[in-house]
Amino acid sequence: MDRPVIDLPSRLLLNLQPWRNAPAWGIAFSGGLDSTVLLHLLAHLAKTESLPALSAIHVHHGLQSAADAWPQHCQAVCDALGVPLQVVRVTVQPGASLERAAREARYAAFASLTQADGVLLTGQHRDDQAETLLFRLVRGAGVRGLSAMPAQRPLGQGMLVRPLLDVTRAELEAYARAHQLNWIEDPSNQDRQFSRNYLRHQVLPRLTERWPQAQASMARSAAHLREAQGLLDELAQIDLASADKPGEFHWLGLPSLAMAPLTSLSCARQRNALSHWLEPLTRLPDTDHWSGWESLRHAVGDASPVWRLADGELRRAGGRIWWLSGQWLRPFSAAGTWPDPASALKLPGNGVLTLSGQIPYGPLQIRYREGGEVMMLPGRGHRDLKRLLNESGVPSFVRGRLPLLFRDGQLLAVANLAGLDGCASEGWRLHWQPPIADQGLR
Protein backbone atom coordinates (compact mmCIF):
# COMPACT_ATOMS: atom_id res chain seq x y z
CA MET A 1 0.00 0.00 0.00
CA ASP A 2 1.30 3.46 -0.88
CA ARG A 3 2.39 5.71 1.96
CA PRO A 4 -0.03 8.49 2.99
CA VAL A 5 0.15 11.82 1.16
CA ILE A 6 0.69 13.70 4.43
CA ASP A 7 4.16 12.11 4.63
CA LEU A 8 5.34 13.66 1.37
CA PRO A 9 6.92 16.90 2.72
CA SER A 10 8.90 15.11 5.42
CA ARG A 11 10.08 12.44 2.98
CA LEU A 12 11.21 15.17 0.59
CA LEU A 13 13.15 16.95 3.34
CA LEU A 14 14.76 13.68 4.41
CA ASN A 15 15.87 12.94 0.84
CA LEU A 16 17.30 16.45 0.47
CA GLN A 17 19.10 16.51 3.82
CA PRO A 18 22.62 16.02 2.31
CA TRP A 19 22.18 19.20 0.24
CA ARG A 20 20.66 21.53 2.83
CA ASN A 21 23.89 23.57 2.93
CA ALA A 22 24.12 24.05 -0.85
CA PRO A 23 24.26 27.71 -1.96
CA ALA A 24 21.16 27.33 -4.14
CA TRP A 25 18.53 24.87 -5.30
CA GLY A 26 17.35 25.12 -8.88
CA ILE A 27 14.14 23.31 -9.86
CA ALA A 28 13.76 21.94 -13.37
CA PHE A 29 10.22 23.19 -13.98
CA SER A 30 8.45 21.88 -17.07
CA GLY A 31 5.04 22.80 -15.74
CA GLY A 32 3.97 19.15 -15.69
CA LEU A 33 2.60 17.27 -12.70
CA ASP A 34 5.91 16.09 -11.24
CA SER A 35 7.79 19.39 -11.30
CA THR A 36 4.67 21.35 -10.25
CA VAL A 37 4.32 19.25 -7.10
CA LEU A 38 8.06 19.49 -6.39
CA LEU A 39 8.03 23.28 -6.79
CA HIS A 40 4.91 23.66 -4.62
CA LEU A 41 6.36 21.42 -1.88
CA LEU A 42 9.63 23.31 -1.74
CA ALA A 43 8.07 26.77 -1.90
CA HIS A 44 5.84 25.94 1.09
CA LEU A 45 8.61 24.17 3.03
CA ALA A 46 10.77 27.27 2.58
CA LYS A 47 8.28 29.20 4.74
CA THR A 48 9.02 27.05 7.78
CA GLU A 49 12.41 25.50 7.01
CA SER A 50 15.82 27.03 6.40
CA LEU A 51 16.41 26.02 2.77
CA PRO A 52 18.88 27.21 0.14
CA ALA A 53 17.68 29.95 -2.20
CA LEU A 54 15.06 28.53 -4.60
CA SER A 55 14.70 29.29 -8.30
CA ALA A 56 13.06 27.54 -11.23
CA ILE A 57 14.31 26.83 -14.76
CA HIS A 58 11.97 26.18 -17.68
CA VAL A 59 13.53 24.83 -20.88
CA HIS A 60 11.58 25.65 -24.02
CA HIS A 61 12.38 23.19 -26.83
CA GLY A 62 10.09 24.73 -29.44
CA LEU A 63 9.12 21.33 -30.80
CA GLN A 64 5.35 21.90 -30.85
CA SER A 65 3.08 24.91 -31.08
CA ALA A 66 1.34 24.09 -27.78
CA ALA A 67 4.65 24.59 -25.95
CA ASP A 68 4.70 28.31 -26.77
CA ALA A 69 2.13 28.92 -24.01
CA TRP A 70 4.01 26.95 -21.36
CA PRO A 71 6.55 29.63 -20.31
CA GLN A 72 3.64 31.97 -19.50
CA HIS A 73 1.94 29.25 -17.42
CA CYS A 74 5.19 28.50 -15.59
CA GLN A 75 5.75 32.21 -14.92
CA ALA A 76 2.28 32.54 -13.40
CA VAL A 77 2.85 29.52 -11.12
CA CYS A 78 6.24 30.82 -9.99
CA ASP A 79 4.89 34.33 -9.40
CA ALA A 80 2.13 32.91 -7.19
CA LEU A 81 4.69 30.94 -5.16
CA GLY A 82 7.27 33.74 -5.02
CA VAL A 83 9.95 31.71 -6.82
CA PRO A 84 12.05 33.39 -9.55
CA LEU A 85 11.89 31.70 -12.96
CA GLN A 86 14.42 31.59 -15.80
CA VAL A 87 13.17 30.53 -19.24
CA VAL A 88 15.85 29.02 -21.50
CA ARG A 89 15.24 28.40 -25.19
CA VAL A 90 17.23 25.58 -26.78
CA THR A 91 17.66 24.18 -30.27
CA VAL A 92 17.10 20.44 -30.58
CA GLN A 93 19.49 18.87 -33.08
CA PRO A 94 17.82 16.61 -35.65
CA GLY A 95 18.62 12.93 -35.38
CA ALA A 96 17.28 9.41 -35.23
CA SER A 97 15.82 9.88 -31.72
CA LEU A 98 13.94 13.10 -31.06
CA GLU A 99 13.49 12.04 -27.41
CA ARG A 100 17.22 11.70 -26.91
CA ALA A 101 18.08 14.91 -28.76
CA ALA A 102 15.58 16.90 -26.67
CA ARG A 103 16.92 15.37 -23.47
CA GLU A 104 20.53 16.22 -24.41
CA ALA A 105 19.59 19.82 -25.23
CA ARG A 106 17.67 20.12 -21.95
CA TYR A 107 20.44 18.76 -19.76
CA ALA A 108 23.09 20.79 -21.55
CA ALA A 109 21.08 23.89 -20.59
CA PHE A 110 20.75 22.68 -17.00
CA ALA A 111 24.51 21.98 -16.80
CA SER A 112 25.38 25.47 -18.06
CA LEU A 113 23.19 27.04 -15.37
CA THR A 114 24.29 24.90 -12.41
CA GLN A 115 26.96 26.85 -10.59
CA ALA A 116 29.71 25.62 -8.26
CA ASP A 117 28.21 23.41 -5.52
CA GLY A 118 24.70 24.25 -6.71
CA VAL A 119 21.96 21.63 -6.90
CA LEU A 120 19.42 21.10 -9.67
CA LEU A 121 16.30 19.21 -8.56
CA THR A 122 14.17 17.22 -10.98
CA GLY A 123 10.80 15.57 -10.42
CA GLN A 124 11.23 12.01 -11.71
CA HIS A 125 9.34 9.53 -9.54
CA ARG A 126 9.17 5.80 -8.87
CA ASP A 127 6.98 5.07 -11.90
CA ASP A 128 9.56 6.82 -14.10
CA GLN A 129 12.25 4.63 -12.57
CA ALA A 130 10.36 1.45 -13.48
CA GLU A 131 9.75 2.77 -16.98
CA THR A 132 13.46 3.55 -17.41
CA LEU A 133 14.48 0.07 -16.27
CA LEU A 134 12.05 -1.58 -18.69
CA PHE A 135 13.10 0.70 -21.56
CA ARG A 136 16.77 -0.12 -21.06
CA LEU A 137 16.05 -3.81 -20.57
CA VAL A 138 14.45 -4.14 -24.00
CA ARG A 139 17.45 -2.31 -25.48
CA GLY A 140 19.84 -4.86 -23.99
CA ALA A 141 21.55 -2.59 -21.47
CA GLY A 142 24.11 -3.94 -19.03
CA VAL A 143 24.31 -3.50 -15.28
CA ARG A 144 25.12 0.22 -15.51
CA GLY A 145 22.14 0.94 -17.76
CA LEU A 146 19.76 -1.26 -15.78
CA SER A 147 20.66 0.70 -12.65
CA ALA A 148 18.22 3.21 -14.19
CA MET A 149 18.28 6.78 -12.85
CA PRO A 150 20.61 7.55 -9.94
CA ALA A 151 19.24 9.63 -7.08
CA GLN A 152 22.12 12.05 -7.66
CA ARG A 153 24.93 12.62 -10.15
CA PRO A 154 27.33 15.43 -11.10
CA LEU A 155 25.92 18.14 -13.36
CA GLY A 156 27.89 21.15 -14.55
CA GLN A 157 29.77 22.46 -11.54
CA GLY A 158 27.21 21.06 -9.12
CA MET A 159 24.85 18.12 -8.68
CA LEU A 160 21.62 16.86 -10.17
CA VAL A 161 19.34 15.40 -7.49
CA ARG A 162 16.11 13.41 -7.93
CA PRO A 163 14.42 13.57 -4.50
CA LEU A 164 11.12 11.95 -5.56
CA LEU A 165 12.37 8.57 -6.80
CA ASP A 166 10.69 6.82 -3.86
CA VAL A 167 7.35 8.55 -4.54
CA THR A 168 4.66 7.16 -6.86
CA ARG A 169 2.84 9.13 -9.52
CA ALA A 170 -0.41 8.36 -7.67
CA GLU A 171 0.97 10.11 -4.56
CA LEU A 172 1.94 13.14 -6.64
CA GLU A 173 -1.50 13.30 -8.22
CA ALA A 174 -3.18 13.01 -4.81
CA TYR A 175 -1.05 15.86 -3.45
CA ALA A 176 -1.75 18.03 -6.50
CA ARG A 177 -5.50 17.52 -6.27
CA ALA A 178 -5.52 18.06 -2.52
CA HIS A 179 -3.83 21.44 -3.05
CA GLN A 180 -5.84 22.28 -6.20
CA LEU A 181 -2.73 22.60 -8.37
CA ASN A 182 -2.91 23.14 -12.10
CA TRP A 183 -0.35 21.58 -14.39
CA ILE A 184 0.43 21.17 -18.08
CA GLU A 185 -0.50 17.98 -19.90
CA ASP A 186 2.02 17.63 -22.72
CA PRO A 187 0.15 16.33 -25.82
CA SER A 188 3.29 14.49 -26.96
CA ASN A 189 3.03 12.27 -23.86
CA GLN A 190 0.13 10.51 -25.60
CA ASP A 191 2.08 9.88 -28.82
CA ARG A 192 2.86 6.18 -28.70
CA GLN A 193 5.38 6.31 -31.50
CA PHE A 194 7.79 7.39 -28.78
CA SER A 195 9.20 4.33 -27.04
CA ARG A 196 8.71 5.56 -23.49
CA ASN A 197 5.10 6.52 -24.15
CA TYR A 198 4.44 3.08 -25.62
CA LEU A 199 5.81 1.45 -22.49
CA ARG A 200 3.90 3.85 -20.24
CA HIS A 201 0.51 3.40 -21.92
CA GLN A 202 0.66 -0.07 -23.45
CA VAL A 203 3.07 -2.23 -21.47
CA LEU A 204 3.20 -1.07 -17.85
CA PRO A 205 -0.60 -1.06 -17.35
CA ARG A 206 -0.76 -4.69 -18.48
CA LEU A 207 2.08 -5.62 -16.13
CA THR A 208 0.53 -3.90 -13.14
CA GLU A 209 -2.84 -5.45 -13.95
CA ARG A 210 -1.28 -8.87 -13.49
CA TRP A 211 1.29 -7.88 -10.84
CA PRO A 212 0.07 -4.79 -8.90
CA GLN A 213 3.47 -4.28 -7.29
CA ALA A 214 5.38 -4.56 -10.59
CA GLN A 215 6.59 -0.95 -10.66
CA ALA A 216 7.72 -1.04 -7.04
CA SER A 217 9.51 -4.33 -7.71
CA MET A 218 11.25 -2.93 -10.80
CA ALA A 219 12.38 0.14 -8.89
CA ARG A 220 13.75 -2.20 -6.20
CA SER A 221 15.59 -4.22 -8.86
CA ALA A 222 17.13 -1.02 -10.18
CA ALA A 223 18.40 -0.29 -6.65
CA HIS A 224 19.94 -3.78 -6.46
CA LEU A 225 21.63 -3.22 -9.81
CA ARG A 226 22.98 0.17 -8.67
CA GLU A 227 24.56 -1.62 -5.72
CA ALA A 228 26.05 -4.21 -8.07
CA GLN A 229 27.37 -1.44 -10.31
CA GLY A 230 28.97 0.16 -7.27
CA LEU A 231 30.87 -3.07 -6.60
CA LEU A 232 31.94 -3.23 -10.25
CA ASP A 233 33.17 0.37 -10.00
CA GLU A 234 35.24 -0.54 -6.93
CA LEU A 235 36.74 -3.48 -8.81
CA ALA A 236 37.50 -1.20 -11.76
CA GLN A 237 39.34 1.24 -9.50
CA ILE A 238 41.46 -1.60 -8.17
CA ASP A 239 42.21 -2.84 -11.70
CA LEU A 240 43.02 0.66 -12.98
CA ALA A 241 45.35 1.55 -10.10
CA SER A 242 48.51 0.40 -11.85
CA ALA A 243 47.38 1.22 -15.41
CA ASP A 244 46.38 4.82 -14.66
CA LYS A 245 49.83 6.05 -13.60
CA PRO A 246 51.45 8.90 -15.59
CA GLY A 247 53.67 7.83 -18.46
CA GLU A 248 56.66 9.47 -20.15
CA PHE A 249 54.48 11.81 -22.21
CA HIS A 250 52.15 12.94 -19.42
CA TRP A 251 52.79 16.55 -20.52
CA LEU A 252 50.46 15.93 -23.47
CA GLY A 253 47.57 16.29 -21.02
CA LEU A 254 45.71 13.37 -22.60
CA PRO A 255 43.94 10.63 -20.62
CA SER A 256 45.91 7.41 -21.10
CA LEU A 257 46.39 3.94 -19.61
CA ALA A 258 49.28 1.48 -19.65
CA MET A 259 48.36 -1.55 -21.73
CA ALA A 260 50.24 -4.28 -19.84
CA PRO A 261 48.25 -4.10 -16.55
CA LEU A 262 45.00 -4.11 -18.54
CA THR A 263 45.81 -7.05 -20.78
CA SER A 264 46.81 -9.13 -17.75
CA LEU A 265 43.15 -9.10 -16.64
CA SER A 266 40.37 -11.39 -17.81
CA CYS A 267 38.36 -10.08 -20.79
CA ALA A 268 35.37 -9.27 -18.56
CA ARG A 269 37.53 -7.28 -16.14
CA GLN A 270 39.17 -5.45 -19.05
CA ARG A 271 35.76 -4.33 -20.30
CA ASN A 272 34.66 -3.37 -16.78
CA ALA A 273 37.80 -1.33 -16.13
CA LEU A 274 37.66 0.39 -19.50
CA SER A 275 33.94 1.16 -19.14
CA HIS A 276 34.62 2.81 -15.78
CA TRP A 277 37.50 4.83 -17.26
CA LEU A 278 35.62 5.83 -20.41
CA GLU A 279 32.32 6.71 -18.75
CA PRO A 280 33.25 10.37 -17.97
CA LEU A 281 34.78 10.76 -21.45
CA THR A 282 32.20 9.40 -23.88
CA ARG A 283 28.94 7.58 -24.34
CA LEU A 284 29.84 3.95 -23.82
CA PRO A 285 29.91 1.46 -26.69
CA ASP A 286 27.32 -1.26 -26.97
CA THR A 287 28.26 -4.93 -26.98
CA ASP A 288 28.84 -5.13 -30.74
CA HIS A 289 31.29 -2.21 -30.71
CA TRP A 290 33.60 -3.77 -28.14
CA SER A 291 35.30 -5.52 -31.06
CA GLY A 292 37.15 -2.22 -31.45
CA TRP A 293 38.89 -2.87 -28.15
CA GLU A 294 39.93 -6.33 -29.32
CA SER A 295 41.48 -4.84 -32.47
CA LEU A 296 43.32 -2.28 -30.37
CA ARG A 297 44.52 -4.93 -27.91
CA HIS A 298 45.76 -7.42 -30.52
CA ALA A 299 47.43 -4.94 -32.88
CA VAL A 300 51.09 -5.63 -33.65
CA GLY A 301 53.71 -3.33 -32.20
CA ASP A 302 54.27 -1.09 -35.23
CA ALA A 303 50.55 -0.68 -36.04
CA SER A 304 48.54 2.45 -35.27
CA PRO A 305 45.05 1.10 -34.55
CA VAL A 306 42.13 3.42 -33.81
CA TRP A 307 38.92 2.65 -31.87
CA ARG A 308 36.35 5.32 -32.74
CA LEU A 309 33.69 5.98 -30.11
CA ALA A 310 30.80 8.43 -29.88
CA ASP A 311 32.73 11.43 -28.49
CA GLY A 312 36.32 10.70 -29.46
CA GLU A 313 38.70 7.86 -30.18
CA LEU A 314 41.26 5.60 -28.55
CA ARG A 315 44.75 5.23 -30.04
CA ARG A 316 47.49 2.78 -29.09
CA ALA A 317 51.11 3.93 -28.96
CA GLY A 318 54.15 3.41 -26.76
CA GLY A 319 52.59 0.62 -24.72
CA ARG A 320 49.63 2.80 -23.77
CA ILE A 321 46.12 3.62 -24.97
CA TRP A 322 45.32 7.30 -25.41
CA TRP A 323 41.99 9.13 -25.46
CA LEU A 324 41.75 11.83 -28.14
CA SER A 325 38.84 14.24 -28.48
CA GLY A 326 38.02 17.86 -29.20
CA GLN A 327 40.89 19.85 -30.72
CA TRP A 328 43.06 16.75 -31.00
CA LEU A 329 40.75 15.49 -33.74
CA ARG A 330 40.39 18.80 -35.59
CA PRO A 331 42.62 20.16 -38.36
CA PHE A 332 45.33 22.64 -37.42
CA SER A 333 47.14 25.22 -39.52
CA ALA A 334 50.81 25.88 -40.25
CA ALA A 335 52.35 28.46 -37.93
CA GLY A 336 54.97 30.25 -40.11
CA THR A 337 57.19 33.08 -38.87
CA TRP A 338 57.57 33.78 -35.14
CA PRO A 339 57.49 37.60 -35.15
CA ASP A 340 58.35 38.08 -31.45
CA PRO A 341 60.11 35.04 -29.94
CA ALA A 342 60.20 36.78 -26.56
CA SER A 343 56.39 36.38 -26.40
CA ALA A 344 54.22 33.27 -26.50
CA LEU A 345 53.11 32.14 -29.93
CA LYS A 346 49.56 30.81 -30.29
CA LEU A 347 49.55 27.99 -32.81
CA PRO A 348 46.27 27.82 -34.78
CA GLY A 349 44.44 24.77 -33.48
CA ASN A 350 47.57 23.42 -31.77
CA GLY A 351 48.23 25.03 -28.41
CA VAL A 352 50.87 27.59 -27.42
CA LEU A 353 54.64 27.82 -27.90
CA THR A 354 57.21 29.66 -25.75
CA LEU A 355 61.00 30.03 -25.56
CA SER A 356 62.90 30.13 -22.28
CA GLY A 357 66.41 31.38 -21.63
CA GLN A 358 68.50 33.39 -24.11
CA ILE A 359 66.40 33.90 -27.23
CA PRO A 360 68.27 32.57 -30.30
CA TYR A 361 69.19 35.24 -32.87
CA GLY A 362 67.84 35.63 -36.37
CA PRO A 363 64.38 35.24 -37.94
CA LEU A 364 62.71 32.12 -36.57
CA GLN A 365 60.00 29.98 -38.16
CA ILE A 366 57.72 27.28 -36.79
CA ARG A 367 56.88 24.35 -39.04
CA TYR A 368 55.51 20.84 -38.72
CA ARG A 369 57.02 17.61 -39.89
CA GLU A 370 56.67 16.86 -43.60
CA GLY A 371 59.32 14.13 -43.93
CA GLY A 372 63.03 14.22 -44.68
CA GLU A 373 63.96 16.73 -41.95
CA VAL A 374 67.52 16.50 -40.61
CA MET A 375 68.84 17.91 -37.34
CA MET A 376 72.44 18.71 -36.36
CA LEU A 377 73.30 17.36 -32.88
CA PRO A 378 76.53 18.12 -30.99
CA GLY A 379 78.80 15.06 -31.02
CA ARG A 380 76.42 13.09 -33.25
CA GLY A 381 76.40 15.05 -36.47
CA HIS A 382 73.37 15.18 -38.76
CA ARG A 383 70.51 12.88 -37.75
CA ASP A 384 67.26 12.09 -39.53
CA LEU A 385 64.29 13.49 -37.56
CA LYS A 386 62.23 10.35 -38.12
CA ARG A 387 64.91 8.26 -36.41
CA LEU A 388 65.18 10.75 -33.55
CA LEU A 389 61.43 10.59 -32.97
CA ASN A 390 61.59 6.80 -33.00
CA GLU A 391 64.38 6.88 -30.43
CA SER A 392 62.33 9.21 -28.22
CA GLY A 393 59.26 6.95 -28.47
CA VAL A 394 56.99 9.81 -29.49
CA PRO A 395 53.42 8.50 -30.08
CA SER A 396 52.62 8.43 -33.79
CA PHE A 397 49.56 10.69 -33.45
CA VAL A 398 51.73 13.40 -31.85
CA ARG A 399 54.51 13.53 -34.43
CA GLY A 400 52.66 15.63 -36.98
CA ARG A 401 51.72 18.15 -34.25
CA LEU A 402 55.14 18.61 -32.66
CA PRO A 403 56.29 22.19 -33.35
CA LEU A 404 59.69 22.43 -35.05
CA LEU A 405 61.87 25.55 -34.73
CA PHE A 406 63.77 26.57 -37.88
CA ARG A 407 66.23 29.34 -38.77
CA ASP A 408 67.27 29.86 -42.37
CA GLY A 409 65.99 26.41 -43.27
CA GLN A 410 67.97 24.71 -40.48
CA LEU A 411 66.09 22.65 -37.85
CA LEU A 412 67.15 24.02 -34.45
CA ALA A 413 64.78 22.32 -31.99
CA VAL A 414 61.86 19.95 -31.49
CA ALA A 415 59.53 21.16 -28.74
CA ASN A 416 59.45 19.30 -25.40
CA LEU A 417 61.81 16.43 -26.35
CA ALA A 418 64.78 16.19 -24.01
CA GLY A 419 68.04 16.71 -25.89
CA LEU A 420 66.21 18.01 -28.95
CA ASP A 421 64.30 20.94 -27.45
CA GLY A 422 67.04 23.58 -27.44
CA CYS A 423 70.71 24.40 -27.24
CA ALA A 424 72.44 23.77 -23.90
CA SER A 425 75.51 25.85 -24.85
CA GLU A 426 73.37 28.87 -25.76
CA GLY A 427 70.99 28.32 -22.82
CA TRP A 428 67.55 28.24 -24.46
CA ARG A 429 64.70 25.71 -24.76
CA LEU A 430 61.49 25.39 -26.78
CA HIS A 431 58.31 24.66 -24.78
CA TRP A 432 54.97 23.54 -26.21
CA GLN A 433 51.66 23.57 -24.36
CA PRO A 434 49.52 21.14 -26.41
CA PRO A 435 45.82 21.83 -27.12
CA ILE A 436 43.53 21.25 -24.18
CA ALA A 437 42.02 17.75 -24.17
CA ASP A 438 38.42 18.94 -23.94
CA GLN A 439 35.74 16.24 -23.82
CA GLY A 440 33.11 17.68 -26.13
CA LEU A 441 29.55 16.94 -24.93
CA ARG A 442 30.84 15.08 -21.93
TrEMBL record:
<dbReference type="InterPro" id="IPR014729">
    <property type="entry name" value="Rossmann-like_a/b/a_fold"/>
</dbReference>
<dbReference type="InterPro" id="IPR012796">
    <property type="entry name" value="Lysidine-tRNA-synth_C"/>
</dbReference>
<feature type="binding site">
    <location>
        <begin position="30"/>
        <end position="35"/>
    </location>
    <ligand>
        <name>ATP</name>
    </ligand>
</feature>
<dbReference type="Pfam" id="PF11734">
    <property type="entry name" value="TilS_C"/>
</dbReference>
<dbReference type="GO" id="GO:0006400">
    <property type="term" value="P:tRNA modification"/>
</dbReference>
<keyword id="KW-0547">Nucleotide-binding</keyword>
<feature type="domain" description="Lysidine-tRNA(Ile) synthetase C-terminal">
    <location>
        <begin position="364"/>
        <end position="432"/>
    </location>
</feature>
<dbReference type="Pfam" id="PF01171">
    <property type="entry name" value="ATP_bind_3"/>
</dbReference>
<dbReference type="InterPro" id="IPR015262">
    <property type="entry name" value="tRNA_Ile_lys_synt_subst-bd"/>
</dbReference>
<dbReference type="InterPro" id="IPR011063">
    <property type="entry name" value="TilS/TtcA_N"/>
</dbReference>
<keyword id="KW-0436">Ligase</keyword>
<dbReference type="InterPro" id="IPR012094">
    <property type="entry name" value="tRNA_Ile_lys_synt"/>
</dbReference>
<dbReference type="GO" id="GO:0032267">
    <property type="term" value="F:tRNA(Ile)-lysidine synthase activity"/>
</dbReference>
<protein>
    <recommendedName>
        <fullName>tRNA(Ile)-lysidine synthase</fullName>
        <ecNumber>6.3.4.19</ecNumber>
    </recommendedName>
</protein>
<keyword id="KW-0067">ATP-binding</keyword>
<keyword id="KW-0963">Cytoplasm</keyword>
<comment type="function">
    <text>Ligates lysine onto the cytidine present at position 34 of the AUA codon-specific tRNA(Ile) that contains the anticodon CAU, in an ATP-dependent manner. Cytidine is converted to lysidine, thus changing the amino acid specificity of the tRNA from methionine to isoleucine.</text>
</comment>
<dbReference type="GO" id="GO:0005737">
    <property type="term" value="C:cytoplasm"/>
</dbReference>
<dbReference type="Pfam" id="PF09179">
    <property type="entry name" value="TilS"/>
</dbReference>
<dbReference type="InterPro" id="IPR012795">
    <property type="entry name" value="tRNA_Ile_lys_synt_N"/>
</dbReference>
<dbReference type="GO" id="GO:0005524">
    <property type="term" value="F:ATP binding"/>
</dbReference>
<comment type="similarity">
    <text>Belongs to the tRNA(Ile)-lysidine synthase family.</text>
</comment>
<keyword id="KW-0819">tRNA processing</keyword>
